[in-house]
Design a protein that fits this description.
Elements lengths: L4 H6 L11 H14 L2 E4 L11 E4 L2 H8 L5 E2 L4 H4 L14 H9 L5 H20 L6 E3 H18 L6 H13 L3 H22 L8 H7 L1 E2 L2 E2 L2 H32 L1 H9 L4 H12 L5 E5 L3 E3 L2 E3 L4 E4 L1 H4 L34 H18 L4 E2 L6 E3 L6 E4 L1 E3 L8
Parallel strand pairs: 2-10
Antiparallel strand pairs: 1-2, 3-7, 4-14, 5-6, 7-10, 8-9, 11-14, 12-13
Helix pairs in contact: 6-7, 6-15, 7-11, 7-15, 8-9, 8-11, 9-11, 10-11, 11-13, 11-15, 13-15
Bound molecules: protoporphyrin IX containing FE.
The site of protoporphyrin IX containing FE has 28 residues, from α5, α11 and α15.
C-alpha cells in the first residue's frame, strides 16, 4: 500500500494499484463519506472533464442526482462527447432516451426472461460439465462465460463463438493498463460490431436485438447505422463484465464461507434476496458520470453548469446511513434498496436478465457441486485496480460427479 485511506480520499483514483485490495478501497470510501457527501478526483476514469470531477459518495445524494436528470444530465461534457461513436441510450436525456428504451425494453420483459430460465440452466450446465468429473475446476470460468453466451445466443443475435473475443476487448477497453490500450480495444470492439451489424443488412430479419435496432424508428426516423452499432456495443459492454464480476464475487464468497453456502442450499427461497445482496456488496460499478446542466444545490453544496459529477454506486451501497452493517454481506438482508442497478430514468435495462443469469448460475453450482470450497493449494485471483472489479480465477474442489449430458 503506498497511500493511507485519508490520502487516497483527497483525490480518488480508481485505477490506483493500491485498489487491487477490495477492502482497502472500501476503507477509502468510508473516509470519503466521513469527509462529506462529495469528494474530488482529478483522474476521472471515463472521458469526462480535464478539470476533474466531483464524486458523489453518499447514498441520499446519489439517489437525488440519479433522479434529477434535468440538473444532472447524462450528456457528456464536450471532451467526453468527442469520444462517442453515436447516440447512446446511456448518454442521452429524456425524452429521446426514453424512446430508445422503448425500443429495447420488450427484450428484457419479465415474461421473456421467465421463458429463458431453462435455456440459461442448460448453458450453465454445459460450462459446469467441462470440469464436473474432475472434482476440481475454476468457477470464474462459469461466471465470465455464462452471461455472454446467454446474451449473444438468446437476445443480441451474435454468434456465441464471438463471446471470448468480445469479453477480451471489453475487458481491455475498460481495464487496459494504458489509455492507448483502452482506446485500441474500444476501436477493435467497434469494428467487430460494425462488421457483425453490416453482415445482417443482407440477411432475412430475425427476432433479436440487432434487428430490432436496425428496424427501429424514433420520431419517424430510422436510427443512423452508427447509432445501431454503438448501442449494440453498449449492450455488449453493459451486459458482460457487470454480471460476470458480481457472479465471480458470489462464487468466491460461497467457496470461502461454507456455512453460507450450506444455508443457501438448505433455504433455496433465499436465493433472490442473496442475489440482491451480492449485487449491493460486490460493487460492479463504481461510477458513471453526469454533467451539471443548470445551477443546483445538493445537501448544501452548489454545482455549476459544465461541472462533472461521478455517481459512485459502490460507495453509496456501503453507506451505513442506509444499510446497517453495510460492510457485511448479509444474504437475507431485508431492507435492500441498493443502487447496484442505478436509479431514475437510466436504471439498468438489463437488471431482470442479470438477476436471472445470476440466480441460475448460483442454483446450478449449488445443486451440482454442493460441497465446493476454494482449492486449498491454489490462489483465487482478484483484479481490482480497474473499472470493473471481480475474481478472474476462483479455483475450487468438490466431490466429482457426472456430466449433465
Ligand atoms: C449485475 C449486472 C449489472 C449491473 C450491476 C448493472 C448496472 C447498471 C447501472 C448502475 C446502470 C445505470 C447507469 C446510469 O445511471 O447511467 C445500468 C444501465 C444500463 N444497463 Fe446494466 N447492469 C447490469 C447488467 C446489465 C445487463 C445484463 C444488460 C444488458 C444485456 C445491461 C444493460 C444496461 C443498459 C442498456 C443500460 C443503460 C440504460 C439507460 O441508459 O437508460 N445491464 N446498468
Amino acid at each position: 500500500m503506498t497511500g493511507t485511506p485519508e490520502k487516497h480520499a483527497e483525490n480518488w483514483d480508481l485505477r490506483h494499484a493500491d485498489f487491487n485490495d477490495n477492502d482497502f478501497l472500501y476503507d477509502v470510501y468510508s473516509v470519503m463519506r466521513g469527509n462529506g457527501p462529495f469528494a474530488r478526483t482529478d483522474k476521472p476514469f471515463l472521458p469526462s472533464n480535464p478539470e476533474g470531477a466531483w464524486v458523489a459518495v453518499g447514498y441520499a445524494e446519489c439517489v437525488q442526482i440519479l433522479q434529477d436528470w434535468e440538473h444532472f444530465s447524462s450528456n457528456p461534457t464536450p471532451e467526453g462527447a468527442e469520444r462517442l461513436t453515436g447516440d447512446l441510450v446511456i448518454t442521452l436525456d429524456p425524452p429521446r432516451q426514453q424512446k430508445f428504451r422503448k425500443v429495447l425494453n420488450p427484450y428484457f420483459s419479465p415474461a421473456r426472461m421467465k421463458a429463458l430460465r431453462p435455456e440459461i440452466g442448460t448453458e450453465t450446465d454445459r460450462l459446469i460439465d467441462e470440469f464436473i468429473e474432475d472434482g476440481a475446476g475454476d468457477l470464474a470460468e462459469v461466471a465470465w462465460r455464462q452471461p455472454g453466451i446467454v446474451f449473444f445466443k438468446f437476445l443480441l443475435g451474435m454468434p456465441v463463438d464471438d463471446v471470448p473475443l468480445c469479453v477480451e476487448l471489453t475487458d481491455t477497453a475498460l481495464n487496459g493498463a494504458t489509455e492507448q490500450d483502452r482506446m485500441t480495444a474500444w476501436g477493435g470492439l467497434y469494428r467487430h460490431l460494425h462488421d457483425a451489424v453490416t453482415a445482417r443488412l443482407d440477411q432475412p430479419p430475425r427476432d433479436d436485438m440487432i434487428d430490432v435496432l436496425l428496424a427501429a424508428e424514433i420520431d419517424g426516423e430510422k436510427l443512423a447505422f452508427g447509432d445501431v452499432v454503438s448501442n449494440a456495443m453498449l449492450l455488449v459492454q453493459a451486459g458482460l463484465e457487470t454480471t460476470a464480476s458480481a457472479m465471480s464475487f458470489a462464487y468466491h464468497y460461497l467457496a470461502t464461507n461454507p456455512a453460507e453456502r450450506d444455508r443457501l442450499i438448505a433455504e433455496p427461497d433465499l436465493l433472490p434476496r442473496a442475489v440482491e445482496e451480492f449485487i449491493r456488496f460486490a460493487g460492479s460499478i463504481h461510477g458513471i458520470p453526469r454533467t451539471v446542466a443548470k445551477d443546483v444545490e445538493v445537501s448544501g453544496c452548489q454545482f455549476a453548469p459544465g461541472e462533472s459529477m461521478i455517481v459512485n454506486y459502490a460507495s453509496a451501497n456501503r453507506d451505513e446511513q442506509q444499510f446497517p452493517d453495510a460492510d457485511r454481506c448479509i444474504l437475507d438482508r431485508r431492507e435492500n434498496r441498493h443502487l447496484g442497478f442505478g436509479a431514475g430514468v437510466h436504471r439498468c435495462l438489463g437488471s431482470n436478465l442479470a438477476r436471472l443469469e445470476f440466480q441460475v448460475g448460483l442454483e446450478r453450482v449449488l445443486t451440482r457441486m454442493p460441497d465446493f470450497i476454494l482449492a486449498p493449494d491454489r490462489q483465487a485471483k482478484f483484479h481490482g485496480n480497474s473499472v470493473t472489479r471481480g475474481f478472474r480465477s476462483v479455483p475450487v474442489v468438490f466431490t466429482a460427479s457426472e456430466r449433465s449430458r
